[in-house]
């Protein structure tokens, strides 16, 4: 029988969790410094997590970690970790832990449950919708540019129109992925852009590109260099709808990779929102590995007599 015991001392679990998480980040491609930077970001939030041992007949078989917090005005739960040791895998402990996490968060008012997968989880979270993926690739040599496609710096006159278009597209991505309502997405878009590029085109360590073919604008790009040590983050590589299906998406990525190397970074990273199959297929074909995958599920209201104090409930090895 699967049971759960809340931990008072999380030291042993945290050491194991950080070791696993660091290894998964390194396996995705970025160097040790970038992996450590990402781990520090997670480590800063661990103190708020509730962690439990997953046990079977008194034997520890794994760990689960959960938390409920405000997310843009909505209470959301998160499975921070769910690991079942290999020796005990496949015996139903994973499903029991997932179900426990869903109940635990729902009983504390969460309307949604998020999980960030850093390893394949099999069918365990198939019922969760994909919100987005973080993808990355090491760039060992300059990419071959597509004939006839050029990339130039964006001008000040082009910037306002580009910004309005990017903000609208960002809102659309968030809503399509099911992350926020349209009004919440607009507020998030305004906050994020104000924080990320407060000085517009003059914001340091950012590259803004205009892609052209046959003297006609076909798309744009926006990249942040040094996002992580040695890593450039691609906030946007966009091809106008009328120019899609001509191989320009790969040309845009090549321009981003060239800008990455020119800035002194050696890896390029993107977020692909759930529902954007075209971008997902493009990144896969170009060799970009999934570093993290964020999923979520809507939670039902808790039953009236749910037991808030049960010690038979937490989550395995796939997340953060």
Automatic annotation (TrEMBL):
Coiled coil: none
Top-tier EC class: transferase
PROSITE patterns given in the database record: GNAT
Skewed-composition ranges (Polar residues): 309-320
This protein's name: GNAT family N-acetyltransferase
Keyword Acyltransferase annotated: yes
GO MF terms held by the record: acyltransferase activity
Positions of the UniProt region annotated as Disordered: 300-320
Entry keyword set: Acyltransferase, Transferase
């Amino acid at each position: 029988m699967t049971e759960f015991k809340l931990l008072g001392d999380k030291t042993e679990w945290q050491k194991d969790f950080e070791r696993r998480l660091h290894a998964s980040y390194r396996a995705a491609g970025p160097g040790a410094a970038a992996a450590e930077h990402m781990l520090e970001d997670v480590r800063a939030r661990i103190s708020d997590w509730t962690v439990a041992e997953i046990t079977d007949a008194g034997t520890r078989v794994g760990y689960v970690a959960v938390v409920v917090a405000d997310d843009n005005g909505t209470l959301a739960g998160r499975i921070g970790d769910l690991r079942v040791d290999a020796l005990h895998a496949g015996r139903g402990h994973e499903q029991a832990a997932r179900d426990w996490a869903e109940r635990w968060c729902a009983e504390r008012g969460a309307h949604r449950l998020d999980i960030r997968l850093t390893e394949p989880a099999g069918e365990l979270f198939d019922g969760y919708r994909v919100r987005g993926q973080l993808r990355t690739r090491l760039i060992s040599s300059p990419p071959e540019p597509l004939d006839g496609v050029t990339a130039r710096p964006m001008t000040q006159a082009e910037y306002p129109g580009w910004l309005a278009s990017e903000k609208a597209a960002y809102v659309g991505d968030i809503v399509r992925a099911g992350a926020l309502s349209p009004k919440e997405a607009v507020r998030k878009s305004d906050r994020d852009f104000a924080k990320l590029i407060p000085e517009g085109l003059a914001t340091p360590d950012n590259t803004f590109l205009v892609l052209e073919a046959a003297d006609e604008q076909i798309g744009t790009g926006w990249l942040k260099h040094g996002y992580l040590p040695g890593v450039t983050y691609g906030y946007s590589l966009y091809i106008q709808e009328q120019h899609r299906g001509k191989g320009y998406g790969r040309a845009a990525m090549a321009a981003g990779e060239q800008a990455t190397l020119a800035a002194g970074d050696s890896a390029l990273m993107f977020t692909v929102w759930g529902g954007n199959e075209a971008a997902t297929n493009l990144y896969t074909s170009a060799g970009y590995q999934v570093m993290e995958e964020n999923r979520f599920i809507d939670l039902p209201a808790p039953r009236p007599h749910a037991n808030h104090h049960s010690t038979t409930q937490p989550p395995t090895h796939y997340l953060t």
